[in-house]
Design a protein that fits this description.
This protein is an alpha/beta fold. The chain has a domain at 1-154: 5'-nuclease (Rossmann fold), CATH 3.40.50.1010. Helices cover 47% and strands 11% of the residues. The chain contains 11 helices and 6 strands. It has a 6-stranded mixed sheet, with helices on both faces. Strand 4 (122-125), helix 8 and strand 5 form a beta-alpha-beta unit. Helix 1 runs antiparallel to helix 10 and helix 4 (70-77) packs antiparallel against helix 5. It holds the Pfam family UTP23_sensor. Residues 155-221 are annotated as: Disordered. InterPro entries: Fcf1/UTP23 (IPR006984), PIN-like_dom_sf (IPR029060), UTP23_sensor (IPR057776). It comes from Mantoniella antarctica. Involved in rRNA-processing and ribosome biogenesis.
């Protein structure tokens, strides 16, 4: 149990660090706008994590608004009884305006929603590995969340990926100073010793009266 708690705290700390980066460098603001696809909704239902919005809000640590596309809703309707719960969940989400009309692939509708360097500042939730790779390659402005056996996970920012190891720190040197600070500031306080604590100097005091007391000599026989 202690190990699970430790992992959960570590994961939450990492998510805060990534969100701080996106807020500082790419203009994301809470409440976050989260765009989900059918695969993600189905995974949440299969893993019995609860309502998709509650799961995402808990993971992000702040309020969020969930959206999907008409193409995702249309795709889920035609996927049979197994995806019924995901289809019902998608109906209660906000719809992204614009983009391709059904029956266009849900993949294309997600890519269209984050086009133009993700002007709407969506966080994308998907289980589609191909979509995740495409989002990672196409733009650094799209945070990606996916379901894992241990819960939700967020991919590291594509333009400042993994600033922890020595080789990755070399890559981070090429980033603007503001981006390096955004990734490093949160982590620098984790497990570090505070160096800004001011200690009061002890005031000079008089001699100890007990030390000044004359010693009593032993009586000679």
């Amino acid at each position: 149990r202690a190990r699970k708690t430790k992992m959960r705290v570590k994961r939450a700390r990492k998510v805060r660090k990534y969100l701080r980066f996106y807020r500082t460098c790419h203009g994301f603001r809470a409440p976050y706008k989260v765009l989900v696809d059918g695969n993600f909704l189905h995974a949440v239902a299969q893993m019995k994590l609860g309502h998709a919005k509650d799961v995402v809000v808990k993971f992000l640590g702040c309020d969020a608004k969930l959206f999907t596309t008409r193409c995702v809703q249309h795709e889920l309707k035609g996927m049979g009884h197994e995806f019924k719960e995901a289809s019902l969940s998608a109906r209660h989400l906000g719809e992204v305006k614009g983009g391709p009309d059904p029956p266009a692939p849900a993949f294309d509708s997600i890519m269209a929603a984050v086009d133009s360097n993700n002007a709407e500042r969506f966080i994308v939730c998907t289980q589609d590995e191909t979509l995740r790779i495409k989002l990672r390659e196409s733009s650094p402005y799209v945070p990606v969340i996916f379901c894992h056996t241990s819960g939700l996970q967020m991919e590291p920012p594509a333009d400042a990926q993994g600033s922890g190891t020595a080789s990755q720190k070399e890559e981070a040197k090429g980033l603007p100073e503001r981006e390096r600070n955004a990734l490093g500031q949160e982590e620098s306080g984790v497990g570090a010793v505070r160096t800004n604590v001011r200690y009061k100097r002890p005031k000079a005091r008089g001699p100890n009266p007990l030390a000044c007391k004359k010693k009593i000599g032993k009586e000679r026989p």
